[in-house]
Amino acid sequence: MSVSICFLGTGGARFVVAKQIRASGGMWMRFGGTQIHLDPGPGALVRALGTIPPQRPAELDAIVLSHKHIDHANDVNAMIEAMAQGGWKPRGVLLAPGDAWESESILLPYARHFVPRHEIVEERGGPYAINDVEVRASVRHQHPVETYGLHFRYAGTTVSYLPCTRYFDGLIEDYAAHKPDVLVINVLRYADSLDVDHLTLDDAKRLIAGIRPGSAIMTHFGTKMLERDPRRIAYDLEDELGIRVYAAHDGWTYDAVA
Ligand SMILES: [Zn+2]
Ligand SMILES: [Zn+2]
What we know:
By secondary structure, this protein is an alpha/beta fold. It has one domain (2-257): Metallo-beta-lactamase, Chain A (4-Layer Sandwich). 27% of the residues lie in helices and 30% in strands. The strands form two sheets. The chain has a seven-stranded mixed beta sheet with strand order 6-5-4-3-2-1-14. The longest helix is centred in the last third of the chain and has 12 residues, at 230-241. The chain binds zinc ion (2 copies). One zinc ion binds at residues 67, 69, 143, 164.
């Protein structure tokens, strides 16, 4: 009954992704025997095959997109084709917000047919069942395209993923209600020098303090966060909040026991 999250990428922001200062392959999650690939950004397929031991796309049960931006979804077609063994063995579930399916879709029409089950993720939607994992969507995030966080529940353990967004108070209420054992949170910015739809470290601190997960894992770092050493920032947050806080790095696997 184990739960694990393998980080195939921990970079965010266009500059970090464009230069691959950190990789951008998203997360490979295992809930017992169920395997879910979340947010396959640029390089996801290469990174998945490059882990030791390699992840096997043909064993995936689902691909999930929080939103359709390149750093979260670029490799979705390559992953679908790999999951379906070149299209010969259609397989699995694809979950994505409505605007990833419709206007300016990132999904190639031919590739999406390699996945037999499509789920259009809606605000506070679900549960969407992936074998014995229940997935529920969060409140809609404040981000330029349709974006939802995801709450994964399996064998009494909840892993919540809080992707890119501007800060607003409704986030705390939504995520706290799911009582996550593990909260993965995208902390792109160190401080607010620009007015953008992303969390700063201060925002993340407020969210972690308000949601009070069992453990918090920061990821999706921009340049300034990387310059300040996310691992040290995690230690400081942990001291301040009294909650276990990790900074993810490329290739790291977090193990939780369900
Ligand atoms: Zn992003
Ligand atoms: Zn985005």
